[in-house]
Amino acid sequence: MTDNLSISTMPARGRYPDLLEFSRDAQEWGYTAIEANAYVTSLEMLERLASGPLPLSSLHNPTPNERSSLGKSSYDLNLGSLDEGERREAIGFAKETIEQAARYRAAAVVLHMGHVPIGKEMQRTLHDLWHECRTESPEYIDVQRRIPELRARTAAAHMDRALETLHELEALARERGVLLGVETRHNLHEIPNIDEMEMMLAVSDPEVVGYWHDTGHAATHEQLGFTTHEEWLQRHSHRMIGIHLHDMNHERDHQCPGDGRLDWDLVRRYTPATAIRVCEIGEWNTIQGLQQSPGFLAAAGIISAAGVDSTVR
Description:
The protein is α/β, with parallel strands linked by helices and 313 residues long.
Protein backbone atom coordinates (compact mmCIF):
# COMPACT_ATOMS: atom_id res chain seq x y z
CA MET A 1 0.00 0.00 0.00
CA THR A 2 1.13 3.55 -0.65
CA ASP A 3 0.72 6.76 1.30
CA ASN A 4 1.00 8.74 -1.94
CA LEU A 5 -2.22 10.47 -2.98
CA SER A 6 -2.65 12.83 -5.91
CA ILE A 7 -5.44 15.32 -6.47
CA SER A 8 -6.81 16.27 -9.86
CA THR A 9 -6.97 19.94 -10.87
CA MET A 10 -10.75 19.48 -11.26
CA PRO A 11 -11.62 21.25 -7.95
CA ALA A 12 -9.38 24.18 -8.89
CA ARG A 13 -11.93 25.31 -11.49
CA GLY A 14 -13.52 28.57 -10.42
CA ARG A 15 -11.29 28.76 -7.34
CA TYR A 16 -7.68 28.99 -8.48
CA PRO A 17 -6.74 31.11 -11.48
CA ASP A 18 -3.16 30.54 -10.34
CA LEU A 19 -2.45 26.81 -10.22
CA LEU A 20 0.75 27.32 -8.26
CA GLU A 21 -1.47 28.37 -5.36
CA PHE A 22 -3.59 25.26 -5.86
CA SER A 23 -0.44 23.12 -5.58
CA ARG A 24 0.52 24.87 -2.36
CA ASP A 25 -2.90 24.39 -0.81
CA ALA A 26 -3.13 20.76 -1.96
CA GLN A 27 0.13 20.06 -0.17
CA GLU A 28 -1.30 21.55 3.03
CA TRP A 29 -4.41 19.35 2.66
CA GLY A 30 -2.26 16.22 2.68
CA TYR A 31 -1.87 15.38 -1.01
CA THR A 32 1.54 14.43 -2.37
CA ALA A 33 1.12 15.01 -6.13
CA ILE A 34 -1.26 16.47 -8.74
CA GLU A 35 -2.96 15.22 -11.89
CA ALA A 36 -3.43 17.94 -14.52
CA ASN A 37 -6.75 17.70 -16.34
CA ALA A 38 -8.93 19.66 -18.77
CA TYR A 39 -8.99 22.72 -16.51
CA VAL A 40 -5.43 23.34 -17.74
CA THR A 41 -6.00 25.17 -21.01
CA SER A 42 -2.52 26.46 -21.86
CA LEU A 43 1.12 25.53 -21.58
CA GLU A 44 1.54 28.53 -19.31
CA MET A 45 -1.02 27.13 -16.85
CA LEU A 46 0.70 23.76 -16.92
CA GLU A 47 4.09 25.34 -16.29
CA ARG A 48 2.67 27.34 -13.39
CA LEU A 49 1.18 24.17 -11.89
CA ALA A 50 4.45 22.29 -12.29
CA SER A 51 6.35 25.10 -10.57
CA GLY A 52 4.43 24.43 -7.34
CA PRO A 53 5.66 22.25 -4.49
CA LEU A 54 3.88 19.06 -5.64
CA PRO A 55 5.08 16.95 -8.58
CA LEU A 56 2.76 15.88 -11.39
CA SER A 57 1.77 12.24 -11.01
CA SER A 58 -0.20 12.11 -14.25
CA LEU A 59 -1.77 14.14 -17.04
CA HIS A 60 -5.31 13.58 -18.25
CA ASN A 61 -5.42 13.78 -22.03
CA PRO A 62 -5.60 16.36 -23.49
CA THR A 63 -3.37 18.60 -21.41
CA PRO A 64 -3.45 21.42 -22.20
CA ASN A 65 -7.08 21.39 -23.32
CA GLU A 66 -7.01 23.82 -26.25
CA ARG A 67 -9.41 24.72 -29.05
CA SER A 68 -9.33 22.46 -32.08
CA SER A 69 -9.68 23.42 -35.73
CA LEU A 70 -13.23 22.01 -35.58
CA GLY A 71 -14.34 24.80 -33.24
CA LYS A 72 -14.61 22.65 -30.14
CA SER A 73 -12.24 21.87 -27.32
CA SER A 74 -9.59 19.23 -27.87
CA TYR A 75 -11.21 17.33 -24.96
CA ASP A 76 -14.27 16.69 -27.15
CA LEU A 77 -12.34 15.25 -30.10
CA ASN A 78 -12.88 11.55 -30.77
CA LEU A 79 -9.81 9.28 -30.76
CA GLY A 80 -11.99 6.60 -32.34
CA SER A 81 -13.58 8.84 -34.97
CA LEU A 82 -14.36 7.53 -38.45
CA ASP A 83 -13.54 11.04 -39.69
CA GLU A 84 -9.81 10.72 -40.26
CA GLY A 85 -9.25 14.46 -40.00
CA GLU A 86 -10.79 14.58 -36.54
CA ARG A 87 -8.94 11.45 -35.43
CA ARG A 88 -5.57 12.77 -36.62
CA GLU A 89 -6.13 16.06 -34.79
CA ALA A 90 -7.14 14.19 -31.63
CA ILE A 91 -3.97 12.09 -31.91
CA GLY A 92 -1.92 15.27 -32.25
CA PHE A 93 -3.25 16.61 -28.95
CA ALA A 94 -2.69 13.24 -27.26
CA LYS A 95 0.91 13.13 -28.45
CA GLU A 96 1.46 16.63 -27.08
CA THR A 97 0.10 15.42 -23.73
CA ILE A 98 2.58 12.53 -23.73
CA GLU A 99 5.40 14.96 -24.53
CA GLN A 100 4.37 17.21 -21.64
CA ALA A 101 4.15 14.23 -19.30
CA ALA A 102 7.71 13.30 -20.22
CA ARG A 103 8.85 16.91 -19.82
CA TYR A 104 7.48 17.14 -16.29
CA ARG A 105 8.31 13.55 -15.37
CA ALA A 106 4.71 12.54 -14.82
CA ALA A 107 4.38 8.77 -14.72
CA ALA A 108 1.24 8.38 -16.80
CA VAL A 109 -1.27 9.84 -19.24
CA VAL A 110 -4.96 8.98 -18.77
CA LEU A 111 -6.83 8.34 -22.03
CA HIS A 112 -10.46 8.47 -23.12
CA MET A 113 -10.33 6.28 -26.22
CA GLY A 114 -13.27 7.80 -28.07
CA HIS A 115 -16.96 7.19 -28.51
CA VAL A 116 -19.68 5.90 -30.80
CA PRO A 117 -21.81 8.92 -31.84
CA ILE A 118 -25.37 7.95 -30.95
CA GLY A 119 -26.64 11.27 -29.61
CA LYS A 120 -27.15 12.09 -25.97
CA GLU A 121 -30.93 12.32 -25.68
CA MET A 122 -31.55 8.69 -24.72
CA GLN A 123 -28.66 8.72 -22.25
CA ARG A 124 -30.06 11.83 -20.59
CA THR A 125 -33.43 10.08 -20.35
CA LEU A 126 -31.78 7.05 -18.76
CA HIS A 127 -30.06 9.19 -16.12
CA ASP A 128 -33.19 11.26 -15.48
CA LEU A 129 -35.28 8.15 -14.87
CA TRP A 130 -32.58 6.75 -12.57
CA HIS A 131 -32.56 9.96 -10.53
CA GLU A 132 -36.36 9.75 -10.35
CA CYS A 133 -36.08 6.19 -8.94
CA ARG A 134 -37.89 4.78 -11.97
CA THR A 135 -35.35 2.14 -13.02
CA GLU A 136 -38.03 -0.58 -13.02
CA SER A 137 -40.44 1.38 -15.21
CA PRO A 138 -41.23 0.18 -18.76
CA GLU A 139 -39.82 3.45 -20.13
CA TYR A 140 -36.49 2.88 -18.40
CA ILE A 141 -36.26 -0.74 -19.49
CA ASP A 142 -36.98 0.26 -23.10
CA VAL A 143 -34.24 2.93 -23.17
CA GLN A 144 -31.84 0.63 -21.33
CA ARG A 145 -32.30 -1.92 -24.12
CA ARG A 146 -32.17 0.49 -27.06
CA ILE A 147 -28.90 2.27 -26.19
CA PRO A 148 -26.67 -0.82 -26.56
CA GLU A 149 -28.52 -1.81 -29.72
CA LEU A 150 -27.92 1.59 -31.28
CA ARG A 151 -24.29 1.62 -30.18
CA ALA A 152 -23.66 -1.83 -31.65
CA ARG A 153 -24.46 -0.67 -35.19
CA THR A 154 -21.13 1.12 -35.64
CA ALA A 155 -19.15 0.18 -32.52
CA ALA A 156 -16.82 -2.25 -34.31
CA ALA A 157 -15.69 0.37 -36.83
CA HIS A 158 -15.01 2.94 -34.10
CA MET A 159 -13.21 0.31 -32.03
CA ASP A 160 -10.92 -0.44 -34.98
CA ARG A 161 -9.99 3.25 -35.24
CA ALA A 162 -9.48 3.46 -31.47
CA LEU A 163 -7.10 0.48 -31.58
CA GLU A 164 -5.12 2.08 -34.40
CA THR A 165 -4.89 5.23 -32.29
CA LEU A 166 -3.77 3.36 -29.20
CA HIS A 167 -0.99 1.55 -31.06
CA GLU A 168 0.32 4.84 -32.44
CA LEU A 169 0.28 6.51 -29.03
CA GLU A 170 1.83 3.43 -27.44
CA ALA A 171 4.90 3.77 -29.65
CA LEU A 172 5.52 7.37 -28.59
CA ALA A 173 4.81 6.63 -24.92
CA ARG A 174 7.36 3.81 -24.99
CA GLU A 175 9.99 6.17 -26.40
CA ARG A 176 9.23 8.82 -23.78
CA GLY A 177 9.00 6.48 -20.81
CA VAL A 178 5.36 7.34 -20.07
CA LEU A 179 2.58 4.91 -19.14
CA LEU A 180 -0.83 5.08 -20.83
CA GLY A 181 -3.92 4.38 -18.74
CA VAL A 182 -7.12 3.51 -20.64
CA GLU A 183 -9.93 4.76 -18.42
CA THR A 184 -13.27 3.26 -17.46
CA ARG A 185 -15.78 5.49 -19.19
CA HIS A 186 -18.89 7.11 -17.74
CA ASN A 187 -21.41 7.09 -20.58
CA LEU A 188 -22.58 4.03 -22.45
CA HIS A 189 -21.69 5.31 -25.91
CA GLU A 190 -18.04 5.74 -24.98
CA ILE A 191 -15.13 3.43 -25.75
CA PRO A 192 -14.19 1.08 -24.23
CA ASN A 193 -16.97 -0.89 -22.62
CA ILE A 194 -15.84 -3.76 -20.41
CA ASP A 195 -15.29 -6.23 -23.28
CA GLU A 196 -13.57 -3.64 -25.45
CA MET A 197 -11.26 -2.84 -22.53
CA GLU A 198 -10.17 -6.47 -22.47
CA MET A 199 -9.47 -6.33 -26.22
CA MET A 200 -7.42 -3.16 -25.88
CA LEU A 201 -5.33 -4.51 -23.04
CA ALA A 202 -4.80 -7.86 -24.79
CA VAL A 203 -3.20 -6.28 -27.87
CA SER A 204 -1.14 -3.68 -25.97
CA ASP A 205 2.28 -3.85 -24.35
CA PRO A 206 1.69 -4.28 -20.59
CA GLU A 207 4.92 -2.41 -19.97
CA VAL A 208 3.36 0.69 -21.55
CA VAL A 209 -0.45 0.42 -21.59
CA GLY A 210 -2.58 -0.39 -18.56
CA TYR A 211 -6.03 -0.06 -17.07
CA TRP A 212 -7.09 3.15 -15.34
CA HIS A 213 -10.04 2.47 -13.07
CA ASP A 214 -12.59 5.15 -12.25
CA THR A 215 -14.66 4.40 -9.17
CA GLY A 216 -17.59 6.69 -9.95
CA HIS A 217 -17.83 5.68 -13.59
CA ALA A 218 -17.86 1.97 -12.82
CA ALA A 219 -20.40 2.47 -10.02
CA THR A 220 -22.61 4.48 -12.39
CA HIS A 221 -22.65 1.58 -14.88
CA GLU A 222 -23.88 -0.67 -12.09
CA GLN A 223 -26.55 1.80 -10.96
CA LEU A 224 -27.86 1.99 -14.53
CA GLY A 225 -28.23 -1.79 -14.65
CA PHE A 226 -25.21 -2.68 -16.77
CA THR A 227 -21.76 -3.99 -15.79
CA THR A 228 -21.16 -4.11 -12.04
CA HIS A 229 -18.38 -2.22 -10.31
CA GLU A 230 -16.84 -5.46 -9.10
CA GLU A 231 -16.82 -7.00 -12.58
CA TRP A 232 -14.72 -4.08 -13.89
CA LEU A 233 -12.27 -4.68 -11.06
CA GLN A 234 -12.29 -8.47 -11.29
CA ARG A 235 -11.49 -8.49 -14.99
CA HIS A 236 -8.99 -5.67 -15.23
CA SER A 237 -7.36 -4.88 -11.88
CA HIS A 238 -4.38 -7.10 -12.78
CA ARG A 239 -3.47 -4.44 -15.37
CA MET A 240 -4.40 -1.43 -13.23
CA ILE A 241 -1.80 1.33 -13.28
CA GLY A 242 -3.96 4.07 -11.79
CA ILE A 243 -7.30 4.86 -10.22
CA HIS A 244 -9.57 7.90 -9.97
CA LEU A 245 -11.04 7.98 -6.49
CA HIS A 246 -14.38 9.72 -5.99
CA ASP A 247 -17.72 8.91 -4.45
CA MET A 248 -21.20 8.79 -5.92
CA ASN A 249 -24.52 9.81 -4.43
CA HIS A 250 -27.97 9.56 -6.00
CA GLU A 251 -27.34 12.58 -8.24
CA ARG A 252 -23.81 12.24 -9.57
CA ASP A 253 -20.28 11.07 -9.06
CA HIS A 254 -17.09 13.08 -8.40
CA GLN A 255 -18.16 13.59 -4.79
CA CYS A 256 -15.54 13.66 -2.04
CA PRO A 257 -14.70 10.13 -0.85
CA GLY A 258 -17.06 9.38 2.04
CA ASP A 259 -19.81 11.71 0.80
CA GLY A 260 -21.70 9.01 -1.08
CA ARG A 261 -22.52 5.33 -1.10
CA LEU A 262 -19.55 3.77 -2.87
CA ASP A 263 -18.27 0.41 -1.60
CA TRP A 264 -14.78 1.47 -0.54
CA ASP A 265 -13.86 -1.95 0.82
CA LEU A 266 -14.41 -3.31 -2.70
CA VAL A 267 -12.02 -0.68 -4.04
CA ARG A 268 -9.46 -1.48 -1.36
CA ARG A 269 -9.51 -5.21 -2.11
CA TYR A 270 -8.83 -4.83 -5.82
CA THR A 271 -6.45 -1.87 -6.00
CA PRO A 272 -2.82 -2.93 -6.54
CA ALA A 273 -0.20 -1.44 -4.24
CA THR A 274 1.54 0.10 -7.26
CA ALA A 275 -1.49 1.95 -8.66
CA ILE A 276 -1.34 5.73 -8.91
CA ARG A 277 -4.11 7.04 -6.65
CA VAL A 278 -5.82 10.26 -7.71
CA CYS A 279 -8.72 12.01 -6.00
CA GLU A 280 -10.84 13.30 -8.89
CA ILE A 281 -13.25 15.56 -7.03
CA GLY A 282 -15.71 17.96 -8.64
CA GLU A 283 -15.37 21.70 -8.19
CA TRP A 284 -18.75 21.91 -6.39
CA ASN A 285 -17.32 20.12 -3.34
CA THR A 286 -16.24 22.11 -0.29
CA ILE A 287 -12.69 22.90 0.73
CA GLN A 288 -13.40 21.00 3.95
CA GLY A 289 -14.24 17.94 1.89
CA LEU A 290 -10.99 18.24 -0.05
CA GLN A 291 -9.08 18.51 3.21
CA GLN A 292 -10.78 15.49 4.76
CA SER A 293 -10.56 13.11 1.81
CA PRO A 294 -6.99 11.89 2.48
CA GLY A 295 -7.95 10.97 6.04
CA PHE A 296 -11.06 9.13 4.87
CA LEU A 297 -9.09 7.12 2.30
CA ALA A 298 -6.46 6.25 4.90
CA ALA A 299 -9.17 5.03 7.29
CA ALA A 300 -10.69 2.99 4.45
CA GLY A 301 -7.34 1.33 3.75
CA ILE A 302 -7.01 2.83 0.26
CA ILE A 303 -3.78 4.60 1.20
CA SER A 304 -1.39 4.19 4.09
CA ALA A 305 -2.22 6.20 7.20
CA ALA A 306 1.41 7.32 7.47
CA GLY A 307 1.61 11.10 7.47
CA VAL A 308 -2.12 11.55 6.86
CA ASP A 309 -4.42 13.55 9.12
CA SER A 310 -6.67 11.02 10.83
CA THR A 311 -9.68 13.38 10.93
CA VAL A 312 -12.47 11.88 8.80
CA ARG A 313 -16.13 12.51 8.30
